[in-house]
From TrEMBL:
Taxonomic placement: unclassified sequences, metagenomes, ecological metagenomes
Keywords of the record: Membrane, Transmembrane, Transmembrane helix
Residue span(s) of domain Acyltransferase: 23-175
Record's protein name: Unannotated protein
InterPro entries, per database record: Acyl_transf_3_dom (IPR002656), Acyltransferase_3 (IPR050879)
Organism (species): freshwater metagenome
GO BP field: polysaccharide biosynthetic process
GO molecular function: acyltransferase activity, transferring groups other than amino-acyl groups
C-alpha cells in the first residue's frame, strides 16, 4: 500500500506513517466517530424523555471499563495491529467498550460522581486546545531537546514519564491561554451576535 523506501519508525514520522497507514484506515476512524455519535444520540434521547438515573447503568459502566482494561492487557501489542481485526489498539472493541462506559456513566447513580469533578470539567473545556497543541509540543521536544522522544525511542520509563509530564503540562498551559484569550472571547462574541439577530427577527 505504501512505498518501501525508508519505511519504518527508524526513519522518523514519515517512515512510521508509511508502516502505520495500512492499519489506521477509514474503517478505524469511522468506527470511532460512529460510536461517539451513537453515545451522544443515546444521551440526547434520554434527556428528551427526562429519563432518570439507574443503578443498572453503574453496573454497565463498571463491567465495560473492566472489560476494556482486560482487553488492553490481553490483546494489545504496542506497535502492531490486532491479529483478529488487523486494526491498532484493539479497535473497534476497545472504542466500543469505552463508548459504553461513557454512555452508562452519564446515566448512572454513582459512577458519574467520580468523573464529573472540577478538574475533569476544566480539562473538557480546554480539550480542543490540548488536542491542537500537544503534538506541536511533542515535535519541538523530539526534534530539539529530547532526540530519543520517538516511538519506542526512550529506554527509561522514568525519563519517559518526565518528558511526558513536561509535554502534558506545557500543552495544558497553552490550551488554557488559548481558551481564555482566544476561544472563549470568540464564542462569547458569536453568542452576542446570534442573540442580537434573534432579537431583531422577533
Amino acid at each position: 500500500m505504501t512505498s518501501e523506501f525508508e519505511k519504518g519508525w527508524q526513519f522518523g514520522l514519515v517512515g512510521g506513517a508509511k508502516a502505520w497507514i495500512p492499519y489506521w484506515n477509514i474503517d478505524t476512524f469511522f468506527t470511532q466517530f460512529l460510536l461517539g455519535s451513537l453515545v451522544a444520540l443515546f444521551l440526547a434521547d434520554r434527556k428528551s424523555r427526562l429519563a432518570s438515573s439507574s443503578i443498572k447503568f453503574d453496573i454497565g459502566a463498571l463491567i465495560s471499563l473492566t472489560a476494556a482494561i482486560v482487553l488492553v492487557l490481553t490483546r494489545v501489542t504496542p506497535g502492531a495491529p490486532d491479529s483478529f481485526t488487523n486494526q491498532p489498539y484493539a479497535a473497534p472493541w476497545f472504542s466500543m467498550l469505552i463508548a459504553i462506559f461513557l454512555g452508562c456513566s452519564a446515566s448512572s447513580m454513582y459512577v458519574w460522581r467520580f468523573l464529573d469533578n472540577r478538574f475533569a470539567v476544566f480539562l473538557a473545556t480546554i480539550s480542543f486546545g490540548v488536542y491542537l497543541w500537544h503534538y506541536f509540543v511533542i515535535s519541538i521536544f523530539a526534534n530539539s531537546y529530547f532526540k530519543d522522544f520517538q516511538y519506542f525511542g526512550v529506554g527509561s520509563i522514568l525519563r519517559w514519564a518526565f518528558i511526558s509530564s513536561l509535554v502534558i503540562t506545557i500543552a495544558i498551559s497553552i490550551a488554557t491561554l488559548s481558551w481564555y484569550f482566544f476561544e472563549k472571547p470568540i464564542i462569547k462574541q458569536v453568542k452576542l451576535i446570534r442573540n442580537k439577530q434573534k432579537a431583531a427577527n422577533d
